[in-house]
Design goal:
Layout lengths: L1 E7 L5 E7 L11 H20 L4 E6 L4 E6 L5 H19 L7 E7 L1
Parallel strand pairs: 1-5
Antiparallel strand pairs: 1-2, 2-4, 3-4
Helix pairs in contact: 1-2
């Protein structure tokens, strides 16, 4: 199962996210759920870098299937919109009866 933890502060502003695990929907290289989550997350990371000036940190381990991403400061309007877009896509997977057992999202206040 892929676990996505979205971190928010006391003002409900996003401060970062973690992604860990493998979906296990299908064999490696053919896993639709893993591909969908990867595309949503990596497109968001690339868009944050290309279209915002927000300072961030990101540590990933492909073998372990982990990403630890944090905003260093209060995020911009564009970064917030990109985060909301990623979350919308991930929630779509989590809410799907076909894929729900393979994706778990939680929101954690920090």
């Amino acid at each position: 199962m892929i676990r996505v933890t979205i971190y928010v502060n006391e003002h409900h502003a996003y401060t970062g996210f973690d992604v860990e695990g493998h979906a296990g929907f299908s064999e490696s290289g053919k896993d639709l759920v893993c591909s969908a989550v990867s595309m949503l997350v990596f497109t968001t990371l690339n868009a944050l870098e290309a279209f915002t000036e927000d300072e961030t940190s990101c540590v990933s381990d492909e073998e372990e299937g982990t990403i630890q991403f944090r905003f260093r400061n209060r995020l911009s309007h564009d970064a917030e919109l990109l985060m909301k877009t990623m979350i919308l896509g991930l929630e779509g997977l989590e809410d799907s009866s076909d894929y729900e057992p393979y994706v778990d999202m939680i929101f954690k206040e920090v």
